[in-house]
Amino acid sequence: MFTGNIAPAQTKSMCPSSKYPNNAKVKFEVQNQNTNQGFDLGDDDCVKRLYSELDSCKWGGESTYSGWRFR
């Protein structure tokens, strides 16, 4: 979902359809915060940052790193 070029200021999101305990809903978002240029976010960087959000709080979180917002 988050592969390929992400346009300036574009937010991509996805809600995996996997079953989670207690029917919990999960939504992942990645935003390119650069307003002038699109970029390709590396797969490893994307996975690392989204896992970081999950590890820091069981309810998820939000952080900005190198011009990207992960939520």
Descriptive overview:
There is one protein chain. 8% of the residues are buried. The longest helix has 14 residues, at 43-56. Helix content is 20%, strand content 27%. A four-stranded antiparallel β-sheet has the order 2-3-6-5, with helices on one face. The chain has a two-stranded antiparallel ribbon with strand order 1-4. The chain has one helix and six strands. The model has no long low-confidence stretch (mean pLDDT 85). The protein has one domain (5-70). It has 71 residues and is α+β, with helices and mostly antiparallel strands. It has one helix spanning 43-56; strands at residues 5-6, 11-14, 28-32, 39-40, 63-65, 68-70.
Summarize the structure.
It contains one helix and six strands; from the N terminus they run E-E-E-E-H-E-E. By secondary structure, the protein is an alpha+beta fold.
Secondary structure blueprint with pairings:
Blueprint: E1 5-6, E2 11-14, E3 28-32, E4 39-40, H1 43-56, E5 63-65, E6 68-70
Antiparallel strand pairs: 1-4, 2-3, 3-6, 5-6
What would the keywords be for this entry?
71 residues, four-stranded antiparallel sheet, two-stranded antiparallel sheet, 6 strands, 27% strand, globular
Continuous helix count: 1
The overall number of domains is 1
Give, in spatial order, the strands making up the sheet with the most strands.
Answer: 2-3-6-5
Q: Which segments are poorly predicted (pLDDT under 50) over 5 or more consecutive residues?
A: none
